[in-house]
Write a structure and sequence with these properties.
This protein is α+β, with helices and mostly antiparallel strands and 231 residues long. 31% of the residues lie in helices and 20% in strands. Strand 6 and strand 7 form a beta hairpin.
Length: 231
Amino acid sequence: MANQPYFPPGEGDQLTFLTHLDANKAKYFARLEISTARQAKIQLVLNWLIWTWRTFMPTRRADGPSATAWRNQLAHGENNPNVSAEPPVPAVLTPPEGTPFFGMLDWLFDEIGRWKKAEGYVDTIGKDLGIIGSAAPAHHDPPQLNLGTQAQNLVELLFYLWEHTGVWIECQRQGEAGFTFLVTETGSPYVDTRPVKVAGQSEWRDYRACWWDNNTATLIFGQTLRVLVHG
């Protein structure tokens, strides 16, 4: 499922949306006909999503593709009882209590859809919870990466998702023969914190991206962005 129009494109704004929803949801449980069992599941989902956005990703960003791949699976992946949804180590991050499942963000979107069909729902509730938004404009051109913050061994890549779930990013570093997969990212920005190959020596990197929807990359790439990375 693609991100909903009320769900912001930026990772920081997404965290703000989730924490705001968590802080304000309980006062509408009765009017939206949300059972005790569903309340518990909503809390489980929000606890895990907020922890993932607030704690896991900032701490594990340097792990690159593996950390992002798990976050994307938690948010949009299909639940598979044969595959553990527990986050990768280190356990020192102390994840929330309860058992997570893949597709938590998509489940939350579906749950919000149920709220909007409840007899007690009115637009003032939607505005208070931040779940009203106009549909994103159709956008079929390949995604464009833009350079954000740049520092030693750090490149911030900015992009806009439009109506898409995420972007598939590839990179070619100086001295490499071609592009290789780097990460799938569902929220801007993506921060590449890989060190340069030779300490103290700058290197150029080319980045390109295509759309990533339903766990599938289009492989139709936008314009290449070249960045000189200082080590």
